[in-house]
């Protein structure tokens, strides 16, 4: 059974080369998973991943992320229907070989994943007292994205896969989940044990696009 991290020590820990190598492995093996086993996720592990995710940075310490677990079949069905509509529309924007390739891609694990998490930004939160977002209010959303990435890494470290489904209608999903006003959908995550493990991203493996390492280069100004 997994446990939450212990209280912070009075002095920061020393991260050695061995730890950094394992951390690099964690980043490299973090994959967008679409192919899930249907067996359930341990509740303690899921709780731990959420606790670790909440350690993410947020503008003004606002912590605007709101996680909603989607379990009701009718709500899941509404999300799946939205995906089917959006996916068909997106497929139609391509032509010829690219359209055929798109049609072969598996772009969501909505039917198989045992856990569905919708992640919202509470745009009306008073936490943080507005610090750091007067000129960049979008920082609230960026803070939620940072939390999602932290959850993704935590899940990977616990042997779970996460798939971010973006081919959806945010308004439809928000309505289907009946969340408070002022919550904006940032991500819909499928979570579970992956059917297969691959070091390369699925879209690379299936010929959609290669990775471009040069995008991480540092520009000097």
TrEMBL record:
First-level EC class: oxidoreductase
Protein's UniProt keywords contain Oxidoreductase: yes
An MF annotation (GO) of this entry: oxidoreductase activity
EC number per UniProt: 1.16.8.1
Keyword Calcium part of the UniProt annotation: no
Keywords: Oxidoreductase
Source domain of life: Bacteria
Pfam families the UniProt entry points to: Nitroreductase
Residue ranges annotated for the Nitroreductase domain, each copy included: 28-193
Protein name: Cob(II)yrinic acid a,c-diamide reductase
Organism: Methylorubrum populi (strain ATCC BAA-705 / NCIMB 13946 / BJ001)
